[in-house]
Amino acid sequence: MNPSFNVAVVGATGSVGETLVQILEELAFPVATLHLLASMESAGSSVMFAGRKVRVREVDSFDFGQVRLAFFAAGAAVSRSFADKARQAGCAVIDLSGALPDALALVPEANAQALHGLAQPAWVCSPSAAAVALAVTLAPLRQHLEIERIHVTACLAVSAQGREAVNELARQTAELLNARPLEPRFFDRQMAFNLLARVGEEDAQGHSVLERRLVSELRVLLGLPDVKIAVTCIQVPVFFGDSYSVSVQTRRPVDLAVVQGALDSAPSIERVEADDYPTPVGDAVGQDVVYVGRVRLGIDEPEQLNLWMTTDNVRKGAALNAVQVAQLLIKDMV
Amino acid sequence: MNPSFNVAVVGATGSVGETLVQILEELAFPVATLHLLASMESAGSSVMFAGRKVRVREVDSFDFGQVRLAFFAAGAAVSRSFADKARQAGCAVIDLSGALPDALALVPEANAQALHGLAQPAWVCSPSAAAVALAVTLAPLRQHLEIERIHVTACLAVSAQGREAVNELARQTAELLNARPLEPRFFDRQMAFNLLARVGEEDAQGHSVLERRLVSELRVLLGLPDVKIAVTCIQVPVFFGDSYSVSVQTRRPVDLAVVQGALDSAPSIERVEADDYPTPVGDAVGQDVVYVGRVRLGIDEPEQLNLWMTTDNVRKGAALNAVQVAQLLIKDMV
C-alpha cells in the first residue's frame, strides 16, 4: 500500500482552493489528514472532503511541521507571508500565486524531468493558467517544430479573478439588460459586453505582470530559454474557460499531419476539428484537458502553425495541474 | 458651388446602410437626389434624410442610369446581382459586401493614390472592417517600420452580422441570466458569455473567407503585396465595436517614440495610453476614428511592435469609410 501524507491547502475557501480539494478526492490522492487553511476572514467555515466536513482554520497559527505538502492558493500576499515558513518546517510547497519567483514552474506534461535532483523540501509552483495551457499544447509539438517565436492573444475568463469578478460580470450584465445605470465595482469600468485590454498593472515598458509571467514560465516549461514570445492578455466577458489565439513561427515548414498526430496522441489534449471548434462554454468548463482547434498553416507561409485553444482556467489551468505536480512530488517522498 | 450628384444606397434599411445615409447628411455630401433601395422584403419603409422621409424602393426595378454613384450595402448576393448592372449604366460602384473580387479596395488614409488613372465608372470596394482598421493604423507607420509580418487576432462584435445578431446576443444573455434553457437561433451555439473561434465558413486549408479577405485587402491597402499576415477572426459577446490584438514583426528595431509620434499626427487615429486603454464600449461606439492603445515593443525583441485597436465596425469600419471613398471619387466627376 502507498504511504499517505498529511496535506495542507491554504486558500481552501477560494474557487481554486475548493476545486483543488475536490480533485484531491476525485484522484484519490493519498491524504492522511487534510488541513484546510485560510486568512482570518475566511476561517471558520467548512469544506466537504471524502464524505466529511473539514473545518477551515487560520493559516497564521498553523504549524506546518504537521504536514509534508502544502498547496498555496490564497493569492500572492499569503504565499509571501507563509510559504517560506512552511519550507522551513520541512514541508514541500506548491504555490499557485506566482508570488515566489525562485519556485520551479512545473507542468507534468511539459517538464516533469525537471524534478530530478530538485532540492528537498520541494519549492515549486503551478504556473499561470495561460502557461499551463500553452505548455500542455506545445510540449508534444516541440520535437516536430523548430519553434522560433510564439504569438499569443490570451482571452481570460473573469473567474481567474475569483468569485467577486464572476458576480460582478453577472450583476453588470443584468443592469445593462434592464437599462439601469451601470456602476462598476470590481472592475474599473464596464466588463459586460466589453473587452478589457489590460489585466493588472503595466510596467514601464507597457507589459503587464501576467504577460511577463507567462513569457518567463513558458520558456522554463518548454525548455526553450531564448524563445521569443509575444503575448497580449485581455479580459473577456466569459465566466469560465480561458481561450488562446496562438501563432507559432518555425524555422522549417510545418508538417500538418505530424502536428495533428502529435496532438491526437497527447493524453491531456482533445482536438476539436472537422467542421467544429472548441469554445469555453461548450468544451472547457469542468474538463481536465486542453481543447485545441483551428489547427492550420499560415496563409502563404508553411513555416507558421496557427491554433485556437480553450481550457478550464480554474481546473486544468490551476487546481488540477497543482495536484498533478503533487502526484509527481510524492513519488520521491517516503 | 460644387456640383451635386444623384446617389443610390442599396441596402438602405440595414444597419450599415442606415448609418451610411446618416453620414451622407452629417458630412454634407453633395447629393442632388438620394435613391434608397432594398430587396423586396425591406422595400416600402422610409428612412429620414436631410429632414424628409425617403421611401425605400425595390432594387430589382431601379434604373441605375438615374444616378452617378451607388453604394452597395445589402450583402454579397445583392452586389453580385446588381452591381454590374449599375456599372453598365455608367454608375460608379462602391461595394461594401466584399463580393466583387475585382473591385479595388480603398481606404483613403492608406491608398488614396490608387484612384489615379482608375477606369471610369469607378468599380471599388470599402474593405472589411478589420482591413479598414488595420490599414488606418498601419499606413502612417509604413515609412517608419520595415514590416515583415503582421499577426492579428480580430475580436469581432456581433453587429457586423446585422441587427438579428445583436438581438440574438441580448436574447441569449437574458435567457441565461433568468436560468431559462438556451435555444440558439441566429448563431449555431451559445454566443452569450462565450467566444466563437470561427466566423463564417472555412476553406480546405482551415482559413475562413473573412480571414482570407483581410489578408488580400490589407496587402493592397498597405501596398505590401508580399507581406505575411497571420489572422484569426473570432466572434465575441460584444454588441458594437471591433477590437484587434496586433503584433508587427519588423526588419529593424522599432523606435517607439517615432511610432507614437506618427500615430499622434494621424488624423483618423486617437492614441489612448498613459494608464488607460481603449475599449469597444468606452471608445469605439459612434466614433469616427480608430483608437489605439498598449503600444509597446516585444519582450526581449525590439524588432516587434505590439498594439491594441478598437473601432466602430459599422461606422468607421464600413459606412464612414465608404462615404470617404465617395468623397475622393467625386473629385474626378464633373
Automatic annotation (TrEMBL), chains A, B:
Residue intervals of the Semialdehyde dehydrogenase NAD-binding domain: 6-118
Pfam families: Semialdhyde_dh (PF01118), Semialdhyde_dhC (PF02774)
Family (UniProt): Belongs to the aspartate-semialdehyde dehydrogenase family.
Keyword entries, A-Z: Oxidoreductase
GO terms (BP aspect): amino acid biosynthetic process
UniProt keyword Lipid metabolism present: no
EC number: 1.2.1.11
SMART domains recorded: Semialdhyde_dh
Coiled coil: none
Listed CDD domains: ASADH_C_USG1_like (cd18129)
Protein name: Aspartate-semialdehyde dehydrogenase
GO MF terms, alphabetically ordered: aspartate-semialdehyde dehydrogenase activity; NAD binding; protein dimerization activity
Top-rank taxon: Bacteria
Species annotation: Pseudomonas cremoricolorata
